[in-house]
From TrEMBL:
InterPro entries: Transcobalamin-like_C (IPR027954). Keywords: Signal. Residues 1-27 form the signal peptide. Residues 118-161 form the Transcobalamin-like C-terminal domain. This is Transcobalamin-like C-terminal domain-containing protein. The lineage of its organism: Bacteria, Bacillati, Actinomycetota, Actinomycetes, Kitasatosporales.
């Protein structure tokens, strides 16, 4: 009778050991998504009609943005359902650059797009014949500046562009 009892104990111990060994993998697989809104360091460039207006490396992350014309709204990649979690964005980077370097920018808020348009940077307006285009690493963003995710090392450019 001792042999079946020892065998049962050994099987139970082995099963428990396997369960505990695999538990961290299961827990890890079920863990929430990683924090994606960690600060990134990017270069922000603002190119006006008459030349370079601003260029500097900054740390940024997605955050609420306030403009005189548009009011306060999220600008963290969750706009328009673009991302499930907050991420750094080009317009948030412009906002951080402006606040930390003593210049202003303004933009209207478009609820239908859940995003800002950048209308004026450092007193230079797009007006009726131009607009501020947004590029990341030399490529125009396919979505608004509060929806596009930027990453560490990116070159974020706002360029005055005539029609």
């Amino acid at each position: 009778m001792r042999t079946p009892l020892l065998r049962r104990a050994a099987v139970t111990t082995t099963a428990l050991g396997l369960a505990l060994t695999t538990a961290p993998a299961v827990a890890q697989a079920e863990a929430p998504a990683a924090f994606t809104n960690a600060p990134v360091r990017v270069t922000v460039t603002v190119q006006g009609p008459d030349g370079l207006l601003f260029q500097k490396k900054i740390f940024t992350w997605g955050h609420d943005v306030t403009t005189a014309t548009g009011g306060t709204h999220a600008c963290d990649g969750t706009n328009g359902g673009a991302h499930a979690t907050k991420v750094p964005t080009p317009t948030a980077a412009l906002d951080h650059a402006a606040k930390r370097n003593g210049f202003t920018w303004d933009g209207a808020w478009y609820g239908s797009f859940d995003d800002y348009s950048v209308d004026t940077v450092k007193g230079v307006s797009g007006g009726g014949s131009a607009y501020w285009s947004i590029e990341v690493n030399g490529v125009p963003t396919p979505v608004g500046g509060c929806q596009f995710e930027i990453e560490n090392g990116d070159l974020v450019s706002f360029t005055w562009t005539s029609f």
